[in-house]
Amino acid sequence: MELIDVCGGEVFITGQVGPDGDFAAATKDVASLVYLCKPQEGCLPDQAWESSSHKERVDLPLGPGLFEVRSALSAVDRINKMAKPILFMCKSANRAGAMASVFQGCRNGWSSEQTLEWAKPLGLKFLTMPPMVEWVSACVDSRFPKGGLIFRQLFEKESSTFTYILGDAETKQAVIIDPVDKTAERDSQMVTEMGLKPTLLLNTHVHADHITGTGKLKGLLPGGAKSGVSEASGGQADVKIHDGDKIRFGSRYLEARATPGHTAGCMTFVLDDKSACFTGDTLLVRGCGRTDFQGGSSETLYASVKGKIFTLPNDCTVYPGHDYQGRHSSTVGEEKAYNPRLTKPVEEFVSIMSNLNLPYPKQIDKAVPANMVCGICDEVEGGDKAEASV
Ligand SMILES: [Fe+2]
């Protein structure tokens, strides 16, 4: 019977008691036992337990139907009061490793990422089991409940672009998605009046129809807000975003999902509770962005939407990068049912996209080079009505 030390002699994990029943000997230095098997699993025979020194014991039978976050958290409080060293035990050390990680994450006030980072070098086996990883993350994250969300959708009428402000109601930390240069002063004033402190100014992609406001806003906002765009876009920015990144503002975060197709570097930002996604031009209300410039690909866009957006809950609100017909948002469920392009088979979708016959975007030759450096360049002349990107 092997005990794995996961915390300087204070916390151990183990699998089933060995056939020689050496429970008492193997655990002689352990003060408490957290037993995670159901009685019928028979991992710890009564005899073995009786022969030990009657350590403090809590039974926390974890099975697929018993993985409730709330009960795990109350167990953490109880375990925390137990004498140390503590042994977490189950049949194969998976549940033991997961529960020990929840315990460590909660008592140290770690985020789910920090907890998993801690578990990795220990080689804990549950890390290879996605449902267990999710469970550990959910337990640790729910220890510190998410604060309220401040949310605004703003509109820039010349390019029909939506800008989004998301802030944590408690800490006032905020992010801005897809600001436009022409409305940078408006946005700066707005977040200042709201008492928000934007830390990151995000672009869903390098836009072809307007100049991003991220560069201008950096100069307008006190407090060192940074610009951000995906690494895959090739654009310059303070922060390069990658698939799977978590963009934190206070107790809230956005998950970055790479959704190439409209451009090669498009990102969709998904709110932590999956109640909203910010899709840029990847998915528009009843439409999608064109795929004939900037490394675009119809097949890739189709795969991105199906794999990274349509897999979100049906009631997840879709906030697009543009709308040209007065609509503001949609839901994943609605778009799955009614999007006239993305409800079609891929071959038909590709055919639709190659026959759009859209005009060359008027601003593209000025906007794209400017946006590759976060909008810091000579002002674009004129106020041409931008082409719809659909
Ligand atoms: Fe675009």
From TrEMBL:
- GO terms for CC? mitochondrion
Pfam families xrefs: Lactamase_B (PF00753)
Cite a single GO BP annotation: hydrogen sulfide metabolic process
Provide the Metallo-beta-lactamase domain boundaries.
160-322
Which prosthetic group or cofactor does it need? Fe(2+)
Under the heading SMART domains, the entry gives: Lactamase_B
Q: What is its main location?
A: mitochondrion
Q: Which domain of life is it from?
A: Eukaryota
Which residues does UniProt assign to the signal peptide? none
Q: Can you provide one Gene Ontology molecular function annotated for this UniProt record?
A: sulfur dioxygenase activity
> Which reaction(s) does the protein catalyse, per the Swiss-Prot or TrEMBL entry?
S-sulfanylglutathione + O2 + H2O = sulfite + glutathione + 2 H(+)
What subcellular compartments does it reside in? Mitochondrion
Q: What is its EC number?
A: 1.13.11.18
Keyword terms of this UniProt record: Acetylation, Dioxygenase, Iron, Metal-binding, Mitochondrion, Oxidoreductase, Transit peptide
EC supergroup of this enzyme: oxidoreductase
Q: Which family does it belong to?
A: Belongs to the metallo-beta-lactamase superfamily. Glyoxalase II family.
Put simply, this protein is called persulfide dioxygenase
- Per the UniProt record, the source organism is Ectocarpus siliculosus (Brown alga)
